[in-house]
Amino acid sequence: MSASSFDFDLFVIGGGSGGVRAARMAAQRGARVGLAETLGADGLGGTCVNVGCIPKKLYSYAAHYHEAFEESRGFGWEGEAPTLNWATLKANRAREIGRLNGVYGNLLRGSGVTVFEAFARITGAHGISLATLNADGSAGHQSFTAKHILIATGGTPHVPHFVGREHVITSNDIFDLEPFPQRLVVVGGGYIACEFASIFNGLGAQVTQLYRGEQVLRGFDDEIRHFVAAEMVKAGVDLHLDAGVVDVRKTDEGLRVTCEGGAVLTADAVLYATGRVPNTQGLGLEAVGVAQGAKGEVIVNGHYQTNVPSIFAVGDVTSRVQLTPVALGEAMVVVDQLFGPASGKAARTMGYDFIPTAVFTHPSIGTVGYSEAQAREKFGEVTIFRSEFKALKHTLSGRTERTLMKLVVETKTDRVVGLHMVGADAGEIVQGFAVAMKAGATKAIFDSTIGIHPTAAEEFVTMREAVRN
Known about the structure:
The chain is of the alpha/beta class and 469 residues long. The protein folds into 3 domains: 3-52 and 89-156 and 277-339, FAD/NAD(P)-binding domain; 159-274, FAD/NAD(P)-binding domain; 357-461, Enolase-like, domain 1 (2-Layer Sandwich), CATH 3.30.390. The chain is 30% helix and 25% strand. The chain contains 12 helices and 21 strands. Strand 1, helix 1 (17-28) and strand 2 (33-37) form a beta-alpha-beta unit. Helix 3 (53-72) packs antiparallel against helix 4. It is globular and about 70 Å long. The chain starts with 7 loop residues before the first strand and ends in a 21-residue tail after the last helix.
């Protein structure tokens, strides 16, 4: 069957970061591209734009103002601090998200992508069926064929089954809570749970965080985990480890949360941030024979191709690395494979080593490369450099917040294989070091680099004495 006999060269299911990038870039290569997204739920941009990275970071900024007002007194600022208008914050955030939805739509249509506001279902190796809503409210159906199909439907929060499950909310709901939750219980210990615990604590809520594990942020460097947990507690988050929830019941006083062991908490809202699952329900994958993993994730090879050769998948729906920039990178690899690289450019590749990431707790985390434990397992002998200090700002602010920086070095090669930070602007600082690490920078190169003084970042190039190896 020739390419021209299909309705589209590429049909993308999902209008999140990966889907939009793939559709737009493929159209710019001259491909005929269709994209389906159920816009009524959120809008173009997916989780990141609508209920993830962007609104979460905006609320993190809002929470930091509370700290800044208190800190300003140490620098001579006097007078009464402003109070939070929750409605204003929500409205301003919604306006900005709406603007971004429009930007995504304009980018797609400007590139020549045909956008469908519809739920898409795969009906065959090259077939797509769309369920739409007509202007009169009746259901409509359209069918198309495509030479290639890309699944980029992302993930969604998962709430386990327990008594009172209907009373809890997820990260999708928390941005528009009404009224502001004066008492918030956060269940979970991953980065989403920790971020929202920090954010709402900063916004003025009384936050209790419950986690069944021995320490939050499993998978991160152990020192980083313990350090940031202590700083969060110091800032006001009431963190309970080895604490599970038995049930949640609605009472006249609020939501009653009964914990394992018998402890009882009362809250205005209970946020469950206990993991995410791939968005694959209703896509028709089973009927077509697309292989899926235990959690429903789409299984792909190194080229993001499923076991059905014409069907590809990128981003959170594959449950590889659930980060927006990773989905963007994977999308570009697929486009280059299917339609060739941009003029004068080499075909993209995607590597999963040294992916930098940030966690917007208060204080924030920035990390790239291997944790100490991971590095010891992979490289054998490693040398550890570590520095902990009070940032210059807090010598006058009156706050007791401290900063931690850590380097993990492969002893044999002197290569820096792990870089971790807890402190202000950690993500901004670590991004630049990620470039150096991707290029193979050694500790000797770090040592020979001049630091910018006075900054926290300079500490990464001035650590000379190893703490252990």
